[in-house]
What does this fold into?
Amino acid sequence: MSRVLAAHPAPDRPTQLFAFGSLIWKPEIEHVAEANGVLEGWHRSFCLLQFRFRGSQRFPGLMMSLDEGGECGGVLLQLPEEDLEAQLDRLFRREFTVKPNGHVPRWLTVQSDVGPMPALVFVMNRNSPLYAAGLSLDEVADVLAKSCGHLGTGAEYLLNTVTQLELRGMHDPVLWRLQELVAERIIPG
It folds into this structure.
């Protein structure tokens, strides 16, 4: 955490966190403002294999991460400066639950309505054994339709993300198609 804070590219500006999945609808950390943003060079992908949370040993799940290429719409969460270390500690404990880490924290530039903003972003660690690269939408839908863990189902995770993006005026056609494919598997015919 101290290395990430020391690398902050604009320590004189409020600290932003880029949320692209469950951090949008379940941030578990305080934030003082929100704004829509677009991260270029990265796309939302169900590429992080999970055996806990929304998956199990019998029915592993997939969680979203950011993988290289494309672009991703999400939400900039402005973190409170007065308790930043404690907020980041909670955030890192949430995001880094397995070793090696599936996510890597990086400072990237997110485009917002008020211009480019540096933001803390969690991207996929492609060296992790949990990296599930190159899955088709059908393969992802098969996993999300079956996976379930102590935090809920993969289908619910997808639905929550799609719903929260839509509420903020962001339409992700890949997630919508994935939602259709998952629904076909859950409710056949």
